[in-house]
């Protein structure tokens, strides 16, 4: 409507009365025409609230006039948050988990950056989809094409529907890729930084206190009666520590979590096995040795090396006639190579068996008969701990086998008892290894004790390798590359739907106000607004009016059509109502 210097009228209905409404010209702004509605008729003599009519904005295609600020800014910020996630992953790579001091774990922060990036990308795509719709509308399309141009940007289902109809291919493919990126981005970024165990080995040398030998009097003193040995204070503390399972500690060692080999006092064994027959059907009235453990010190010359002899005799099966196994081991003092682990000053033998220690050189210890208190103390301890017998004889009255036992090993290693058959048997479990391993453990504790007492003379320069186990964050750069590729490609393809925005005369959206005025400019609720009106300006204008129109989607009471009508003249559609 243009201003021509005369008063124009249009019909106005209110309360069922017709009246003419005069449009009084006002001072127009540059590039626009503004009017005031004046009611003329029997019921309207005063001008109504001033409303703008035919607000015309010039169509200004160009960079600044139609620049999609929100969409482009969202895309840029989405890339920025992707960069933030990359920086977070790189800064955490190889970092110990204990060194992370931020209140939230990296996985939580990565989830947050991914969620924000997805939200920003969705905002950018929504803005771009609006640009795409209006750019296609400017070119001219069938109404169904306009529908699919909109539908293709409404999520995966809309995009797939449009593609099935070969419509809006560009925006539909972009919508699908953006949706896929929103699904995979978070898991990929979180998988790019994982927690793993890092094992690091270092090598060096340090001084370790351990004695290669001990003298013949270290363990105790033989009394005038050779059968008695008085333990030394050092040997007593060693035995007490073994029985109490006290940790072996060397606090002065600066190596934590190290595996080393040291040379120390100990025992090795030379063993032989033989068989001796038994027949319980012939000698059932006599005592029969089914099991026995004996520990002795062979008599030697005054200054000759001495050792311990351990013999174990066992009935292995339930048979009444067979062979008893007899195993004899000579346990000899020597310098051994022990493999040990050190962790915060606590010493642990790597191997559980004496068979895994390396024999280096024999050690001379005098026998108790020659005044050797060390071997005497070891013999006394072993004999009182392990000596055991398990004899049997058939009771003439009951006909059952009766037992006579000493010590504990016989009862501990008993495999079965058939009192009416051929008496007890002891299976394949052999106490020999237990006895030698016990002597080995005590000897190793003796070596540590003696080395600590000797001071610098008891130190060994030991090469070591330390195994440092750390829990660290580790970056998976391949997975990170995939995540970044998805993020960047999603941003790039989203920006392609903005193509052509320079040809639009204003910033655009898919607001219902903008669509409504585009399909029905200067009509109905959009009187005074043309198709180039900004939805923000329209909304701002309506909010300032005292009589802002209220609309409802329903059935018009005057026409009976379903649509968007004035609320006071609209009813809700009923179930089954034909419209």
Automatic annotation (TrEMBL):
Residue ranges under compositional bias (Polar residues)? 558-571
Q: Where is this region: Disordered?
A: 558-579
**Which InterPro entries does the annotation name?**
DUF3176
One family name in Pfam for this protein = DUF3176
Record keywords, A-Z: Membrane, Transmembrane, Transmembrane helix
Give the residue spans that cross the bilayer. Answer: 63-89, 109-134, 477-502
Tagged with keyword tRNA-binding: no
This chain belongs to which protein, by name?
Uncharacterized protein
- Native source species: Plectosphaerella plurivora
């Amino acid at each position: 409507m243009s201003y021509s210097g005369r008063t124009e009228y249009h019909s106005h209905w209110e309360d069922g009365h017709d009246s003419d409404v005069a449009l009084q010209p006002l001072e127009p702004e540059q590039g626009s025409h503004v009017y005031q509605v004046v009611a003329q008729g029997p019921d309207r003599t005063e001008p109504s609230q001033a409303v703008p009519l035919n607000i015309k904005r010039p169509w200004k295609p160009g960079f600044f006039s139609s620049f999609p600020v929100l969409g482009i800014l969202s895309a840029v910020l989405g890339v920025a948050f992707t960069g933030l996630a990359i920086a977070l992953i790189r800064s955490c790579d190889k970092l110990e988990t204990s060194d992370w001091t931020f209140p939230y774990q990296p996985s939580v922060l990565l989830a947050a950056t991914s969620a924000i990036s997805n939200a920003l990308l969705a905002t950018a795509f929504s803005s771009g989809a609006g640009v795409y719709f209006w750019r296609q509308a400017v070119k001219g399309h069938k109404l169904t094409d306009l529908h699919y141009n909109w539908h293709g940007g409404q999520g995966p289902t809309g995009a797939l529907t449009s593609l099935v109809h070969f419509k809006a291919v560009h925006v539909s493919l972009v919508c699908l890729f953006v949706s896929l990126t929103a699904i995979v981005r978070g898991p990929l970024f979180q998988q790019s930084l994982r927690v793993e165990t890092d094992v690091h080995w270092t090598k060096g040398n340090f001084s370790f206190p351990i004695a290669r030998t001990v003298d013949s009097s270290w363990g105790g003193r033989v009394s005038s009666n050779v059968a008695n040995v008085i333990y030394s204070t050092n040997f007593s503390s060693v035995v007490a520590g073994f029985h109490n399972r006290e940790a072996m500690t060397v606090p002065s060692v600066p190596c934590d979590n190290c595996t080393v080999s040291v040379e120390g006092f100990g025992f090795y064994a030379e063993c032989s096995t033989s068989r001796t027959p038994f027949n319980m059907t012939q000698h059932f009235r006599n005592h029969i040795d089914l099991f026995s453990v004996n520990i002795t010190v062979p008599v030697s010359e005054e200054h000759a090396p001495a050792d311990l002899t351990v013999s174990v005799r066992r009935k292995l099966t339930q048979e009444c006639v067979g062979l008893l196994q007899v195993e004899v081991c000579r346990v000899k003092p020597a310098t051994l190579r022990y493999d040990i682990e050190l962790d915060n000053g606590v010493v642990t033998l790597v191997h559980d068996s004496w068979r895994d220690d390396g024999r280096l050189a024999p050690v001379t210890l005098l026998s108790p008969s020659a005044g050797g208190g060390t071997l005497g103390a070891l013999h006394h301890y072993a004999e009182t701990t392990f000596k055991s017998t398990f004899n049997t004889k058939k009771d003439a009255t009951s006909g059952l086998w009766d037992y006579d036992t000493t010590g504990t090993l016989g009862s501990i290693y008993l495999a079965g008892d058939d009192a009416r058959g051929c008496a007890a048997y002891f299976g394949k479990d052999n106490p020999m290894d237990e006895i030698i391993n016990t002597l080995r453990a005590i000897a190793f504790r003796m070596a540590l004790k003696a080395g600590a007492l000797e001071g610098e003379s008891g130190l060994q320069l030991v090469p070591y390798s330390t195994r440092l186990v750390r829990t660290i964050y580790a970056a998976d750069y391949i997975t990170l590359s995939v995540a970044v590729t998805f993020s960047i490609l999603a941003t790039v393809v989203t920006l392609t739907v903005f193509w052509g925005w320079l040809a639009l005369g204003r910033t655009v959206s898919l607001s219902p106000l903008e669509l409504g005025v585009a399909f029905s400019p200067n009509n109905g609720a959009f009187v005074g607004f043309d198709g180039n009106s900004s939805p923000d300006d329209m909304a701002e204008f309506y909010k300032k009016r005292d009589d802002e129109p209220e609309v409802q989607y329903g059935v018009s009471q005057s026409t009976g059509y379903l649509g968007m009508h004035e609320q006071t003249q609209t009813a809700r559609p009923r179930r089954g109502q034909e419209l």
